[in-house]
Amino acid sequence: MAVLDLQPKLMIGAGWDDFGLIDSGHGRKFERYGDHRFVRPEPQAMWAPRLSDWQAHGEFVPGSDEDGGGKWRFDRPVPRDGWDLSRGDVRFTASCTPFRHLGFFPDMAPVWDWMGEQLAGKAEAATLNLFGYTGVGTLSLSDHGAVTHVDASKKSVAQARANAALSGMESRPIRWIVDDAAKFTAREVRRGKRYDGIILDPPKFGRGPEGEVWRLEESLPGLVRDCAALLDGESRFLFLTVYAVRMSSLALAGLLEEALRHLPGTIEHGDLAIREEGEGGRVLPTAIFARWSNA
């Protein structure tokens, strides 16, 4: 039976050559993406900035609705079709999306590394990336074997495939699936499939390709139960991240404990965060997570 560790954990990411958190404060964050600098909203940055002047290429100005809206304002030229970044062997295109982010989630970097550690020594691992977006995590997982990448957005899956080609990884055994994550996972259960690892990064609200409605609090328990049915005693991990919700990571861990009680291993929970660059850099929390490991 999987054991729940009640003590919260921190997974703190740091910058790399093509990304860094320069500063944060007053509800915003100042980041570098390659040669470009951007300011974006960040409600959890409640302190004062360390720097007096943020010289940015652009800033995302949020709308009045706390759940969405807003637009980019640019002070310097930014490539409209995006620009290429890399982390290790994975290359991908960054761009200023209408959803305030840059086409990938840099705070997930320690998660990509952690998944690789869990799969160490596992020959030809089979993994599943639900809500896979533009595929940076999928390409990292493909170092260890076959990956099934699922996202409801045709545009996101197309960008993920383009990132695979940009990385020289288009021939790797990756299945690119445009589908509703919950429906796809339920079908995999009926097919009797199994995976060595599963990562899921669900939105607070979304719609599938056929108009399926996703509401996190209502839909997540069933999806987690189906994910648990795709794992067995030889599987290595399940990793769940959640952004912008009013709930505790302990609640997510309790959900995993219920679904995974038939398996050995450990369930942990806590915060994802990014450390500011430079001496005395502060740690900015960005999301909550729960994870099961059996390495």
Topology:
Layout: E1 3-4, E2 9-13, E3 19-25, E4 28-33, E5 36-41, E6 58-62, E7 70-74, E8 83-87, E9 90-94, H1 109-118, E10 127-130, H2 136-141, E11 147-151, H3 154-166, E12 174-178, H4 181-190, E13 197-200, E14 205-207, E15 213-215, H5 216-229, E16 237-242, H6 249-259, E17 266-275, E18 283-293
Describe this structure in words.
The chain has a domain at 3-16 and 104-293: Rossmann fold, CATH 3.40.50.150. The chain is built from 6 helices and 18 strands. It has helices at 109-118, 136-141, 154-166, 181-190, 216-229, 249-259, and strands spanning 3-4, 9-13, 19-25, 28-33, 36-41, 58-62, 70-74, 83-87, 90-94, 127-130, 147-151, 174-178, 197-200, 205-207, 213-215, 237-242, 266-275, 283-293. Helix 4 packs parallel to helix 5. It is globular. The model has no long low-confidence stretch (mean pLDDT 95).
What's this model, at a glance?
This protein is an alpha/beta fold. The protein has helices at 109-118, 136-141, 154-166, 181-190, 216-229, 249-259; strands at residues 3-4, 9-13, 19-25, 28-33, 36-41, 58-62, 70-74, 83-87, 90-94, 127-130, 147-151, 174-178, 197-200, 205-207, 213-215, 237-242, 266-275, 283-293. It is 22% helix and 33% strand.
Task: Please give a handful of descriptors for the protein shown.
295 residues; alpha/beta; Rossmann fold; nine-stranded mixed β-sheet; five-stranded mixed β-sheet; globular
